[in-house]
Amino acid sequence: MNPYRILDIDPGASRREILQAVGRALRERQHSIHEVATAQRELTDPLRRATHDFLQIIDLEPMLERLPPMPPCGELAPAPALATLELGDDG
């Protein structure tokens, strides 16, 4: 979850801008109340916000979107073919 995306604000947003964005997000109803409340809590707590600011460097969402879909529970995905690994003796 990226609270900046949920609230559609920049990382440098002030506390007032965060609260205004919360009101806007609740009116627009693009995200659940739980997601908006969590985003507000994460960005108004200085320690949690610093953690999110640090993790902004590592945005995994684009990578996760490119992964193939997971099979339903109880079904096994086909095993990928494994290449043969030969270990040589360099010594």
Strand tally is 0
Biggest pleated-sheet summary: none
Q: Please indicate the percent range of residues in DSSP E strands (runs of 2 or more).
A: under 5%
Structural category is mainly alpha
Could you tell me the radius of gyration in angstroms? Answer: 21 Å
The average pLDDT is 81
Strand and helix order: HHHHH
**Net shape:** extended
Report the span from N to C terminus.
50 Å
Helix count from the secondary structure assignment:
5
Extract low-pLDDT stretches: none
Characteristic terms for this protein:
91 residues, mainly alpha, extended
Explain this structure:
The chain has 91 residues and is mainly alpha-helical. The chain has a domain at 3-58. The chain has five helices and no strands. It has helices at residues 3-7, 15-28, 33-44, 46-55, 61-66. Helix 2 runs antiparallel to helix 3 and helix 3 (33-44) packs across helix 4 (46-55). The longest helix is centred in the N-terminal third of the chain and has 14 residues, at 15-28. The mean pLDDT is 81.
Overview in brief:
By secondary structure, the protein is an all-alpha fold. The protein contains 5 helices and no strands.
